[in-house]
Amino acid sequence: MYETVLLDQADGVATVTLNRPDVLNSFNATLHRELEDALKRAERDAAVRAVVVTGAGRAFCAGQDLKAHLDETEGRSRTIAHVLREQYNPLILRLRNLEKPVLAAVNGVAAGAGVSLAMACDLRLASDKASFIQAFVGVGLIPDAGATWFLPRHVGLGKAFELAFLGDRISAGEALALGLVNRVVPADEFEAATRELAGRLARQPTRALGLMKRAFNRALRTDLAAALDYEAFLQGVAGATEDHAEGVAAFLQKRPPQFKGR
Ligand code: T3D
User: Fold this and answer.
1) Which residue's CA is minimally distant from atom 56 of ligand 1?
2) In sequence order, which residues have a C-beta less than 8 Å from that of residue 254 and are 6 or more positions away?
3) Within 13 Å and on the Cβ side, how many CA atoms surround 66?
4) Please, what sign has the CA dihedral across residues 210, 212, 217, 222?
5) What is the rounded distance in angstroms from the CA atom of residue 254 to the CA atom of residue 150?
6) 29 lines ligand 1 (CB under 6 A)
7) CB distance 70 to ligand 1 below 6 Å
8) Which H/E stretch holds residue 252?
């Protein structure tokens, strides 16, 4: 269906694989277009209740394709801003606003906007072969694709400065200690662990998870009173779902709930 993305769907999970392994799944315009389209499909398909973003081969994503960039654009300093506005920023916002759980399965190295992509997902599961680099400084750029927003929130301001200023490669274990990833698993268990976690997410009450995402997104930019008010509003929506009724019935009947995602 696509040239640079694989889209697979099973058991309520859509897996979107960046598929440019020869260039460590770095972004060109085609990958941007196809990734957007794949995410849009996953968002609209009611049978999809969790989304996994991962990379083919040994890398997760090495950020912007530094070779393709020169071929695809003219007038470089002007077009970097253009590429960010036209390609990266909509992608990051799509991920943050997608009202289904999105898991980054970080199979290998993530660099530059590749780290931003992982940070824009809701959860990050890393292989112990994964590593993370704020590679921007190495090419004289600033962290982008949301990195200035996500990174200090995940690791704190002091560590964000260190990672951004020095551009050092950190291991999956260090990323876990910093709170940049949720879990690290051995490489030979990574696919099974990804399937297991994504499957669990897909069996949760999907509407409630989507509303939680909306609430967290909003709470990051409001005060407590506004967050409380918005929680009350969204809880009214969650409370009217079939999954809420099922959760309460299952509790009272002392059985596991069977959520349907509606
Ligand atoms: O439009 C804009 O510019 C704005 C957006 C900017 C967002 C950004 O992401 S800026 C940051 C761009 N990314 C980088 O600077 C990372 C560049 N890559 C690396 O530093 C290293 O490749 C890694 C640390 C990620 C991995 O190192 P290693 O030693 O495991 O692999 P390698 O040998 O460097 O790379 C393997 C191949 O992938 C190699 O090709 P070759 O020599 O086998 O033909 C290499 O050139 C290619 N590759 C890796 N990263 C990129 C890439 N090709 C194009 N673009 C890349 N980003």
Assistant:
1) 65
2) none
3) 13
4) positive
5) 40
6) no
7) no
8) helix 242-252
Distance from residue 216's CA to the centre of ligand 1 (Å): 33
Q: Write the single-letter amino acid at 144.
A: D
CA 69, CA 52: separation in Å to the nearest integer? 26
pLDDT less than 70: residues of the chain: 69-78
Dist CA 43 CA 45 (whole Å)? 6
Does the Cβ of 146 fall within 6 Å of ligand 1? no
Atom of ligand 1 nearest to the CA of 87: 1
Task: List the one residue out of 183, 27, 142, 137 whose CA is nearest residue 92.
Answer: 27
Q: What local confidence, expressed as pLDDT, does residue 21 receive?
A: 98
Domains of the chain with bracketed CATH: 5-202 (3.90.226.10), 206-252 (1.10.12.10)
Q: Give the global pTM.
A: 0.97
62 lines ligand 1 (CB under 6 A): yes
- pLDDT tens for each residue of 164-180: 999 999 999 999 999 99
In degrees rounded to 5, what are phi and psi of residue 249?
A: -60, -45
Q: How confident is the model over 53-82, as pLDDT tens digits?
A: 999 999 999 999 999 866 655 445 558 999
Which amino acid, 223?
Answer: D
H/E stretch holding 248: helix 242-252
- Check if the beta carbon of residue 83 is closer than 8 Å to that of residue 172: no
